[in-house]
């Protein structure tokens, strides 16, 4: 049968089917833009302590950091806020298990009843394309009050789907396969990812192909740890905006180093494993993170690493190029942020020992 054999009604039905299959190729209605009725998309999912939203509904976001910088804590704070408003949350976990995630959610103050009713935890062990995987996910994605989907472990998720994190084509394929596919149904999607250990080889933000950043149509965040998290101590990380596609978040941030914007400070004071005071403070004028001399801190860290032994302040100054006052400030910052440990040497000398390599999230 060819087109000439079709009735008028059959031809119209065929055209309608073809149009539905390729709907994105149809011209977009520009009326609201031209008549001034268009309103920009605002971040309304999750919130900072001052009420400013974190994520855009229906958009893909990333949060990248080294391990133990607070990515999961940050995501769970947003989950807690959405649960408190009576909304549903989907958590796709490719790294942890339900015990670790739910205990943290309880620790940040989410009530058990709200978790039981509205927190939907999924720990996939096979690709979403396997069997009824996507259909089962749709049971949750179809909930009218679902506003947030956290994907914890992007690298692990891609590996599970047979995709290579350093391949741009595979990164784009994964975005269409899962992240963008979920976001298109309405919730804000937040993908938790890693940065490489070495600052000189990590690229712009997360491990892998640059398309990870290009595929973000919401916001990309970077978390940098300042003071380690742990039971019985106050930990702190700084949250930077690396990309803000809709452009509504940066106005609530302060310009920082090399294109990043300082958006918040994540503070977690863990009294016990099940009790943590958590805050996401807005940045304060006069405490701009750009004042930290990151390049000099890297140089001091490298000098201590090469020395292979604790150094006095004078020995550090001899090994690092720069003004003595700036070198001392960089050394003090490394001590404050627990990269360097102070101890007493002979004749009352103060010795500086490198505890861990200082790395930066810069480009």
Largest sheet: 10 strands, mixed
CATH topology of the largest domain: Rossmann fold
Helix content: 25-40%
Q: Any idea of the CATH class of the largest domain?
A: Alpha Beta
Question: What is the mean predicted local confidence, pLDDT?
Answer: 84
Describe the structure.
With 363 residues, this protein is α/β, with parallel strands linked by helices. The chain folds into 2 domains: 45-288, Rossmann fold (3-Layer(aba) Sandwich); 294-354, Winged helix-like DNA-binding domain superfamily/Winged helix DNA-binding domain (Arc Repressor Mutant, subunit A). The chain is built from 12 helices and 14 strands. The chain has helices at residues 8-21, 31-34, 71-84, 98-107, 112-118, 133-141, 154-160, 168-183, 211-214, 294-307, 313-319, 324-336, and strands at 45-47, 53-55, 60-65, 88-93, 119-122, 146-152, 188-194, 219-227, 234-244, 254-255, 261-272, 275-281, 340-344, 350-354. The strands form 3 sheets. Strands 3, 4, 5, 6, 7, 8, 9, 10, 11 and 12 form a 10-stranded mixed beta sheet that branches. It has a two-stranded antiparallel ribbon with strand order 1-2. A hairpin with a 5-residue loop joins strand 10 and strand 11 (261-272). The longest helix is centred in the middle third of the chain and has 16 residues, at 168-183. The radius of gyration is 24 Å and the shape is elongated. The chain starts with 7 loop residues before the first helix and ends in a 9-residue tail after the last strand. The relative contact order is 0.12. Residues 198-205 and 207-211 have low confidence and may be disordered.
